[in-house]
């Protein structure tokens, strides 16, 4: 048939049809085009700014042409200031850093020559500042890229764990002091912004802010590396961060990526053994920061001395601060909302301390925000925040004579109804004094979830066997790291039939259930071992309805989940072995939610003891330091989740009636 069609076609064209691709093609040679000469609409000034100890920090100052009385926006980075202020991103920092903002469309890595246009030299999130005529400044933190001095990873404030005499508080202070005295085009007002590590540098600046620092936006800042930002979550170590240690500390510039044996880290980490074994296989016994972390697995003075939510909220609230993070922030889930919460007590007029939570993955604020995993939001949610929330806020404090912004104290995306909620306070529901009161949702026998507490006579517990040799994967094992950013919205059907994952499900909802606040885990759990991890996921189960959109039919959407390392159930600082087979309370907060479970949906809770290879495996035998666990320490354990009066397990749900 196809032969006869071709023949017909050839006749219709009245000439034979050959191959559009000739057997060979020789491109003509010619002289290169003359470069396009255009006067730049900005000046790039490079300064080595002296700090109080004489160390000089590499700073790129991008000044719009003709700027007068212009405000300054400063970002202090460990990811290469020169690259941040250049459309040529080939030289960009640590390839593993997900905080790096997107280039403006059309100015990706291909842009080798500097553009004459400031808007094209800077990344997508800087577009708003360029349009508003701001001076944009990037600076390398001490010891990285162009800056002099010694590098410490997210250095604790000067003190017993940072004897260098300098930190990112003093360096921000000295930098701002120099900038306002040496940037004649500026009006002497400075705002700071930055995400993740760069968010940490914003928070550090707030510990002793220079008087010229007038407003701050810490985006997904790394605030407490042990409780929930980057390195650990409630003491469980994020083994995947070991690559970051190399990328960040093996060199002053971007460190190498040490090749792994397999593409699939599930296989790599299992074969290596403990996280310590894997670190050593990457050569990390040469890296001081790895040795520091290895020596501080518990929440001791090292971590307490750098818990920035505690430190910043102990200070007077003098700089208007907008804390921002993603609702599915897979890296820094702790910092922004905890710092906001603690500092809020000092915000007497509700006009200095702000919270923004969008439907985003980590640092998505620096990228486009129409979608997140399978979801399509109402418009570009990140552009909206950059243009309509950040700019009026910064303008109010940084631009001479600008009007007062109408900034909502809390702006949080409603992930169940697909719109922004502008609120006076957060959370809307909690244990007490929030307006609405949280309600216990009990884990009941036979995989049921109910607002009714269990009664005597029901099966005492549900059981599963956790086998460290066959841990539960956190993502389907594709060996593809491309799904890292969206793993927190991964459909959980891929594990809910595993025998080592307990699944509890509610009846089909007949009315909407709104949750706005922090779900609190209360598990009465026992292990046959002497240590264990406990992972709890709160899930919205979409109806498996053939009439709805196929992509979401039956979808098990995690709206909040986290891991807790059982040895820290009584004290974060002093771990304790579990008594085998004795139920004990495991109590912890899950990340914030602002969601509506719709009629027709069901609420689900899953419980499991491994989340691999994101987190290192708990050997399930109590050892002094899990980083050094030996092969023989990893043991299968029988886990019980209790569901009887007196030891009733539940999730305290922040329900808003
Ligand atoms: N989440 C990254 C990070 C911050 C601080 C320490 C280590 C890693 C980041 O995106 O910058």
UniProtKB/TrEMBL annotation:
Coiled coil: none annotated. Keywords: Hydrolase, Signal. It comes from the Bacteria. Residues 391-652 form the Xaa-Pro dipeptidyl-peptidase C-terminal domain. GO terms for molecular function: dipeptidyl-peptidase activity. InterPro entries: AB_hydrolase_fold (IPR029058), CocE/Ser_esterase (IPR005674), Galactose-bd-like_sf (IPR008979), Xaa-Pro-like_dom (IPR000383), Xaa-Pro_dipept_C (IPR013736), Xaa-Pro_dipeptidyl-ppase/CocE (IPR050585). Pfam families: Peptidase_S15, PepX_C. This is Hydrolase CocE/NonD family protein. It comes from Granulicella tundricola (strain ATCC BAA-1859 / DSM 23138 / MP5ACTX9).
